[in-house]
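Hi L.,

As promised, Elongation factor Ts, mitochondrial:
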Amino acid sequence: MSKKISTENIKELRLKTGAGMMDCKKALEAAEGQVDLAIENLRKKGLASADKKSSRIATEGLIESYIHAGSRIGVIVELNCETDFVARQPEFHNLARDIAMQLAACQLVDYVSIDDIPQNIILKERSIENEKEDISQKKEEIKKQIVEGRIQKRLKELSLMNQAFIKNPEISIEELVKQHIALLGENIRIRRFQRFILGEGLERKSDNFTQEVSKMIYNN
């Protein structure tokens, strides 16, 4: 006998996955009411359909801005979709907002994906890792493995798509985007972003009272 699926279960699954109500109901029925299994099945289904749509051209969308509390960090991000209809949907706007907030929180991120990282940056990171003292005495094969592992970790730190979503660390930004592709039925792409940090690149004036007093003494 199959377990009865409650409206609360369906709402919970929809809140966690962003999937449609009927999809959530079917997934729960197939999983005999087990929410975790239903989430896994929906994710597999969502990611599969998202992968099929990922090659389609996305030239519509919006530019979202986010200013962090205190007005010290600002982010502008361009999020693309296929049609103006999807660009107007609240789910799409919420996604853009979440991505902008993510970028404000993850200040080490400089690129949308690992594929966007220039080769010269990768070579520089490899050079830095190769010269670290803690692996200088390792055998060459082991050294290569350690360096490669560290490089991959570093590249993921620089890539937005590889970051854990700040509102739900169980999924990555890439998975978040793919969930919305499945939800909205169109290809969605983070095209570019720019982060602004107050005072970045400027020399900060140092107000050191002791130094000022010293100067006054010596000048007299």
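The domain at 60-197 is CATH 3.30.479.20 (Tetrahydropterin Synthase; Chain A).

Thanks again for sending the construct details.

K.
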